[in-house]
Amino acid sequence: MKKIFIILLLVLSITNIKAYENDYFKIDIPSDFKKEQVEDNIYKWTNNNKYIAITIADNSNLKYDISSYTDTDIEKQKEYLMKNLNTGLEDYKVNVEVPYIKKIDLNDKTILRYSLYYPTKESTGYDIYQIGNVFTTKNYIITIIYSSDNEINDSEYSFINNFEIKDDKVISIDRIKYIYYIVAIGIILGVIGYILSLKKRK
After folding, report:
1. Which of 193, 47, 33, 44 is nearest to 120 (CA)?
2. What is the predicted pLDDT for the residue at 188?
3. What stretches of the chain show up as alpha helix (H) in DSSP?
4. Which of 45, 101, 162, 165 has the fewest CB atoms within 10 Å around its CB?
5. How far, in Å, CA of 44 to CA of 104, rounded?
6. Distances (CA, A) of 2 to 8, 9, 156
7. What is the DSSP string of 54-75?
8. Is residue 196 classed as helix, strand or coil in its secondary structure?
9. DSSP letter at 155?
10. Residue 182 buriedness (CB in 10 A; 0-12 / 13-18 / 19+)
11. Rg for the chain (alpha carbons), in Å?
12. Is 198 in contact with 124 (CB distance < 8 Å)?
């Protein structure tokens, strides 16, 4: 009886997923997230105060390659994230924190992963936590952001493990020229997400 009960709990704890595919990528999204129409090259799914957003930028000429990042480059990215997010949200008196930013290996790719914390409880009724993942391929810079009103555990965004980009690896031609550009879209999405949460609350 105990074994049956455990099996039932495991089955009930598995979140249903739905596949999404386009010309750029394919991904399995948890079924409780609903797709929203945003704009070209930005894809977004929401579930109450949580959302998944994917942005696509061109890399065909820039040839950014995250695998070539040094520790110094990553530290500069962190400074850039904090500076630009806080500048974008200064009217709301929000000081965003970047608990970590690091290179990790995901499947056969080296990606840049960072976390963000927005202490926004006074203005929205809840704090905002985000995990960003940046992929570079031959033609694209793709950022996936998972945003939540609770601290994020690994299982919540495990869907990213099945993310597949329809493109080849980067063939680097030079050292990165404009290192900051790579997270710019992620910064914009973070600011937009916060402002939209304020409007929703009103």
Report:
1. 193
2. 56
3. 2-13, 71-88, 121-124, 184-201
4. 162
5. 24
6. 10, 11, 27
7. EEEEE-TTT---GGG--HHHHH
8. helix
9. G
10. buried
11. 18
12. yes
Question: Length of the chain in residues, anyone?
Answer: 202
Q: How far is CA 185 from CA 102, 125, 174, in A?
A: 18, 26, 22
Residue type, 120: T
- 192, 172, 165: which is closest to 92 by C-alpha? 192
Give the span between the Cα atoms of 41 and 59, in whole angstroms: 13
Pick from 96, 120, 111: nearest CA to 187 = 96
190: tokens are 């973070």
For 67, what's the count of Cα atoms within 13 Å in the CB-facing half-sphere?
13
Query: Which residues of the chain are under the pLDDT cut of 70?
Result: 1-15, 172-202
Alpha-helical (H) ranges within 25-182 are 71-88, 121-124
What's the pLDDT score for residue 183?
A: 58
Per-residue tokens: 189: 């999405």
Tokens of 71: 């520790």
DSSP for residue 177: S
**What's the pLDDT score for residue 93?**
84
For residue 199, CA distances in Å to 33, 38, 135, 189, 192 come to: 20, 16, 30, 15, 11
The per-residue pLDDT for 193 is: 59
CA-based torsion, 75, 76, 77, 82: positive or negative: positive
The residues, any chain, with a CB within 8 Å of residue 99's CB and separated by 6 or more, are 115, 116, 117
User: Rounded to whole angstroms, how far apart are CA atoms 197 and 187?
Assistant: 16
